[in-house]
Amino acid sequence: MPKAREWTAGADETIRTMRGGGATWAAIGRVLGLSRNTVIERGRRLRAEAPVKAAVQVAGDIVSDDPNRGPLRAGHPLTWGLLTSEPYPQADYR
Predict the structure, then answer these.
(1) Cα 40 from chain centroid?
(2) Domain that holds residue 21
(3) Is residue 36 domain-resident?
(4) Could you give the C-alpha distances from 90 to 51, 86, 93, 94, in angstroms and in order?
């Protein structure tokens, strides 16, 4: 059976600092020479969180980029605009 990894205070601080600065788990893993999943698991135990993204104002509504935010209302310009911003491609059937 493999030995358990012994985490150092320096590695823990690297995880906290980089994640607090917005670095991805993969980038932190490359710096530490560890796999992304190993770093994710340790980061969760340390409660290392990425900074919350700023809210964006769209058509009078303030929308947060937080992935845990509630759903947007039906027809909201942010989501509806993604569907309608480009013209429908015309097929060329000759």
Answers:
(1) 12
(2) 8-68
(3) yes
(4) 43, 12, 9, 12
Q: Are 32 and 11 in contact (CB under 8 A)?
A: yes
- Does residue 93 lie in a domain region? no
Q: What is the pLDDT of residue 36?
A: 93
- Distance CA(27)–CA(24), nearest Å, equals 5
Q: For residue range 25-45, what is the model confidence (pLDDT) as tens digits?
A: 999 999 999 999 999 999 999
Query: Whole-angstrom Cα distance, residue 56 to residue 65?
Result: 7
- Asked, for residue 57, whether it belongs to a domain, the answer is yes
Does some domain include residue 2? no
Work out how many domains the chain is built from and give that number.
Answer: 1
pTM above 0.70, yes or no: no
Any bridge partners for residue 56, and if so which? 63
Hey, what long-range contacts does 36-40 have (CB within 8 A, 24 or more apart)?
38/5, 39/15
- Residue 22 sits in a domain whose CATH number is 1.10.10
pLDDT for the residue 54: 62
